[in-house]
Model the fold of this input.
Amino acid sequence: MGVLYHGADYNPDQWLTRPEILEQDIDFMKKAGVNCVSLGIFAWATLEPSEGNYNLDWMEEIIDKLWAAGVHIDLATPSGARPAWMAEKYPEVRRVNADRIRQLFGERHNHCYTSPVYREKVCAINQMLASRFGRHPAVIMWHISNEYGGECHCELCQKAFRKWLKEKYGTIDAVNKAWNAKFWSHEYRDFDQIESPAPHGEHSVHGLKLDWKRFVSYQTIDFMKWERDCIREIVPEAKVCVNMMYHYDGIDYFEQAKDIDLASWDSYPTWHKPGEPLWETALDTALMHDLYYSVKKQPFWLMESTPSYTNWQRVSKPKRPGVQLLTSLQAIAHGSDSVMYFQWRQSQGASEKFHGAVVSHDCREDNRVFRETCDVGAALKAMAEVAGTGKEKQAAIVMDWSNKWALEDSQGPRNIGMGFWQEMQRHYNGLAQNGVSIDFVHPQEALDGYKLVVCPLVYMMSEEFTLRLREYVKNGGTLVVTYWSGVVNETDLVWLYDSPHNLTDVLGVRRLEVDGMFDGEKRACRAVCAGLPETAQGSVLCEVAALEGATPLMVYDEEFYAGAPAVSVNEFGEGKAYYVATRFEKDFYKALYKTVGEGVLESVYPYETEEGVLATRRGEYVFLQNFNDHPAKAGEWTLEKYQTLVLKQTQDGYEKVF
Amino acid sequence: MGVLYHGADYNPDQWLTRPEILEQDIDFMKKAGVNCVSLGIFAWATLEPSEGNYNLDWMEEIIDKLWAAGVHIDLATPSGARPAWMAEKYPEVRRVNADRIRQLFGERHNHCYTSPVYREKVCAINQMLASRFGRHPAVIMWHISNEYGGECHCELCQKAFRKWLKEKYGTIDAVNKAWNAKFWSHEYRDFDQIESPAPHGEHSVHGLKLDWKRFVSYQTIDFMKWERDCIREIVPEAKVCVNMMYHYDGIDYFEQAKDIDLASWDSYPTWHKPGEPLWETALDTALMHDLYYSVKKQPFWLMESTPSYTNWQRVSKPKRPGVQLLTSLQAIAHGSDSVMYFQWRQSQGASEKFHGAVVSHDCREDNRVFRETCDVGAALKAMAEVAGTGKEKQAAIVMDWSNKWALEDSQGPRNIGMGFWQEMQRHYNGLAQNGVSIDFVHPQEALDGYKLVVCPLVYMMSEEFTLRLREYVKNGGTLVVTYWSGVVNETDLVWLYDSPHNLTDVLGVRRLEVDGMFDGEKRACRAVCAGLPETAQGSVLCEVAALEGATPLMVYDEEFYAGAPAVSVNEFGEGKAYYVATRFEKDFYKALYKTVGEGVLESVYPYETEEGVLATRRGEYVFLQNFNDHPAKAGEWTLEKYQTLVLKQTQDGYEKVF
Amino acid sequence: MGVLYHGADYNPDQWLTRPEILEQDIDFMKKAGVNCVSLGIFAWATLEPSEGNYNLDWMEEIIDKLWAAGVHIDLATPSGARPAWMAEKYPEVRRVNADRIRQLFGERHNHCYTSPVYREKVCAINQMLASRFGRHPAVIMWHISNEYGGECHCELCQKAFRKWLKEKYGTIDAVNKAWNAKFWSHEYRDFDQIESPAPHGEHSVHGLKLDWKRFVSYQTIDFMKWERDCIREIVPEAKVCVNMMYHYDGIDYFEQAKDIDLASWDSYPTWHKPGEPLWETALDTALMHDLYYSVKKQPFWLMESTPSYTNWQRVSKPKRPGVQLLTSLQAIAHGSDSVMYFQWRQSQGASEKFHGAVVSHDCREDNRVFRETCDVGAALKAMAEVAGTGKEKQAAIVMDWSNKWALEDSQGPRNIGMGFWQEMQRHYNGLAQNGVSIDFVHPQEALDGYKLVVCPLVYMMSEEFTLRLREYVKNGGTLVVTYWSGVVNETDLVWLYDSPHNLTDVLGVRRLEVDGMFDGEKRACRAVCAGLPETAQGSVLCEVAALEGATPLMVYDEEFYAGAPAVSVNEFGEGKAYYVATRFEKDFYKALYKTVGEGVLESVYPYETEEGVLATRRGEYVFLQNFNDHPAKAGEWTLEKYQTLVLKQTQDGYEKVF
Done:
């Protein structure tokens, strides 16, 4: 029988002088059905109060008490923030900003990933923890550092960057060519001349900036591997995870996922935004759940979430009654094997003291947040059997951090923002509203097994990837490619001659021009087929393409490109390729993917559901969730406001699990 | 018989080569009824052209001429800006910004308050002035520096900060505890590790930032005391004042007021803003007048104001005809014993050359601004008898700079702004529109004698203060406490267990949750008592409290907390305590304080007055001012557009003074 | 027979390894009617790959091939961007920002104009180019550097600034007086104490900032002269030009124009902005064409334009079909002898890769942009006879960079922006819509021959200029002076006593007050004469003036200055002087200049034309251009959408040239 984990970040080091608090913690954990905590994040100053002087006894006591209460440990390495003594004695551990100013002591997540001193100190404390607790039965997972991110521009990092470039390109001439460095006379004669982008230095050479982003991601992962390997030197079988973040731009998480055992993420949607129905916020969150399922194509953990509100959003709104349960179970529905919170108990001071927590400053168990946390505990216990189950391969959306970096750094055709995530979300929602299971795939991953591959704003495509897309369609796959895809190669050089590169015959169209649209500007389109909305509005970019064999489904209905395809389809080999020339309004995509999916994709719950009810599936389990604040129908079921229904598919139909 | 002072900042040092200008000055001063000027602000470069080479003769000549014309002197120390030679020879006098970059020479109000060199140079020039002019009969007051403010992060200041912390806390462990420095592993092992907040250093530890603000305020006052004491070494009986500023955040003016003889401030309201009636701007200004009356609980001076327009506001609009007189007399109505302007004569060049002045660039006496200044001169002479009179104790609003600093630095529950002054203003206006005399009190001041105490957003409350509030109510006082009060202690650590701390039984409510509201978001409330508006709208924060004995007066009418108290009242001992759970629309507060004040407070002019007519009282004098641009009624009187009426209360009723 | 040049920036150095590309270039140039290219801008790294190691053979080959194809060369000096080796070896060539931080290598247009090393290196490469190609028959012009601009705050520049000041003022006391440095005790005792304005230093002394701007302009031009003279040392007869920019603020182009043979500019209007008719964008562009005609009062070159879109605007929109031809010919219509593009071929990488070009990434000749470029080539050939013709003197608008600097740096009366160019544009459009030929004149230029002189926002006027304006009117000229003119002298000191200085009797009005207006705020005015709109709305600043002899034409109709003149006219000597007290809505000015021009000015095409059709004249050639997207009438002609008609005026009427 599987286990779904329920728990929180636990920071008892803040309360060591308050035994009544620590005692209440254990008592309340039992009441809330907590069976796992992330322990020791940011505890370094307590674990090593002065250099080489370790103090781990308090942690041993805590771990033993937790374990006695049935609580597992996701043991943190404390590298997310370093002690003051280290910052003082070894300035090199402090990050240097892009303006080349070294940071002072303070804050967190701001050490140099290259610094040998920092690596040495991290290794020492990690190994100390591993030796002492690595084989404790409670410890089931290592929480490596915390929310890795950011970048350092110190001399050590500059050298590491140059080394990375040399290994990648071999010669400086290859670098110049890859970056088109002749532009503005920017050729380098030596690797030593290369410096990271700076506000007061180079910031116009796209290839340099792209490679700097790649290097930062590489170096961060390299540091993570160092942490992991230090632990495994002591406990070779140690399992490790990192916590990823919403829309985080700084790390290629597909790359990072290769070197960990478990992906996890910290989910803080802005629920209850005025003017946005809850189900839309839920789909935004669902995309991220599916992305972090996809980075390893296996169940992940919801590592952090808030049982009530955050304190760092512009405005903090508590989750309405029932929403904590609903949104916690949404993570399970999308493949999480845990519901964890930041944090167990509200801090008494400093920047996050008003962040919601299971135990509030009032230290009471009769308040709403604690009671609703108990509800989650009970629900997870009731549906533990879903733990470990995976998802079916249906649709794949191509996601590539390098592409996003290149796209967003590009000057032109629209410098007020391309809305990368908005484009992703439109395709995701269109599929999700048709009840389709969605994976994200990296361009280097195999496309086999997917019925549909979607390329939204895949501006950057390597020769190799375009050739695989051709093969995929030729062999019967269905492909959707949007405007502004297939424009540049992997170093951000524009593909000459054909565009989208290697795909003009696959799509049956050739890109001619791009009309950038101001915010609020719209271009009328009309359908020339059945099934799609009769009229729709293009925005953001209106790409003008020559029809070279495709069948138009929608056409522009105004401007000098009236009649040019806005959506088209082309048969290529055994498959079909759709081209979407612009960004339509949100509700266009449900119809689009109904058309695209016909005969290709199947709903995970093929019965009529009201708007606001979302259906997902793990293994044999179907989750129906009502994000409306009123009852709603899904097939034969009526769901109460904010209700989650978990059904097990059997030969005879569905059996209610929860 | 008293004197009301009338005059301006006078900078003859800018015109020493133009004798016809200096001559016109004296002539025009006589015509305008000027009897006092602030002399020598920013004259240092003229007084000490090179190090130790003093040049005071020109000033003596000016002082003698002024005195001969009946003009008193508020003699300035010139420390608001230093000469170029000093900045060049002693870099330490120049301030270091938070980014740790030392400023170049230039601007003003930007010296290091800690620098021993600066203190020495200031002492020398101050004593030179004191020796020469300190006993001149014209000199009735010392204008210490100018608009003190800002902060320095140099090494001298860092050391002073650490010393201040050591004196306050004793041990580094006490600091760590006070700041909850375990959070993010931020514990210090030594005072030397502590650095002031920095954009590239620590800026998340609320306790550190709060103490830094307190230190800056302390050090500024310490510098002011140094200036004062240098003068008093020469002239022990010298009276000193400083000029304070609108909504100024950087100095605890209650603390500063303890060390001066006279409080004064520089008042530059944005009169004639489109869409705001003049009386609203007037109430905004009135609050500040009352605050600067309150810092010493004695008459203050209006040290600077403009007779026409400023030049530094976004848009400069001249005061409409009659408004200079109206607004000048408003200061008198609220306890000022002077009307002074910046400046006497417009500068010919540099940044403030277009600031309004009594004498314009046209050097004419027939223009509007000069004629209206003469009107003010005549009016002040006519009502001189009010000079020195004080105000009656009625309502007290709690004001605490430390509280404001902590509140605004807090992360959560609303990071787009808490609107501290807007909250203060609502309570102030509600009281003022009921004709109540208003003081501001610091939490350390005694509450005796006040019929009403209001705590608007008093987020930070010390144990001691909460206990005194209890006593105050118990003994028959009336208390109003708003949402988000009594949350943290004096080092910004959250009070555990009860909230508002020590006041749940006084108020009869206990805080449960806080719903942050976006700008424009509103929450419907409805009255469950007579006297308050039937419906009203909550905003900013909607606090949800459990009723524990209080009687609800308004309740929320929507969301999951419908029915929870929005306003409530509780009897406690001999007194009453009101709780206001949210921020209502502006016009709610007049009704609120009518209800609260019933049987408790009395109007200073208990007759019906039209909207836009404001009534205030000093001693036996009632001021009625019509801020409407049309005639309006107040009791039996009809006031012309912009008219001020000064009445003396006698046994038989009112006697018109002006 | 004249020649109109057609071509582009040509950067073959980016394609030296791709012979098929270089071959296609020549082929396509012939097809597009290209007869001139700007060669070698930003080619330094290719021309001098390491210090002193020159590589010019490739360029010789290119030049020979171009010349063989009939293409002339505008040969660039490569100083717009320096090679990496120079930045590395000689840090002094890299600019220092206002924050005193030296830039790293990267970007362009960012060298120190003072650095002796940079001057030496530039001289060497320039002379190398001059020796090799200076007498090549293809080389008809030198393109000195590229888009000069920006400023450097290094120690070398500080010294040069002090030297410039010393030469200008002689003594430090003269500086103090000119800057009114007594204000805030800012007097200098020595030139060495003066530093350039800085965010962390002085930024309130207007005179300092104004002189710094003048120095930066001076030093930039000095550098340009150095470049020019190095070339002329080798080729004394070399002709030189620089490319100027839209609304560029950093250089006094009147001053710069004195030292070049040909003015040129880079024109990138934002055509097709939503909500703005094309003819308005065209008038905005026309103003700049006329300005760059005016800096030398002779035909200029359109040095850069885009055949389709830019990539650096907020949104990139391609020119609609026909608009490339229309807008290219607009330059000719206003006095350009060329139509040149940036760039010939789109770069494959880096920041401008998506900028439109004659040859697109698709390398095809059948796309729209290439075809329309061929149309331009043909048109220029057809109307070559207009080359070299000049414009008639009619109206002159006073333009003075120093005035703009002083005006915009001023604190008060409206710090949210004075809208300098918007004011200029209103007067320009009003005149242009009446078919008047417009020049811009510098205050130091003679006013003889102009029928009308307009002073829009000429805030700064020297004694000498005011006297010449008096003479101009006295002798029969017509003058228009707006609000906020004649306020300060040439060092930004306010004129005392009379205002506008020396013009109160000329205009018959005297400035009393200025009412600053918020955005969106309006003040009603009404006509008190025939010919002007019955009502109009004042904005930005409403100046209140005393009538001292003038006849009001419009008066304010509200506020305390109702009845004061909003527009007035005064007879002075043989001439007339108009005063415009505020900024009116855009469409007021056509009527204003119809009234002002009656009997004074004549249209270049005195027949009725529909709105959106613009008429201009060079020599005997009248250009009629229809900026509407529909046919429109002009006199007896009907112009198709976007059509340009070129007519030659003969004794019998008009003869169609194109």
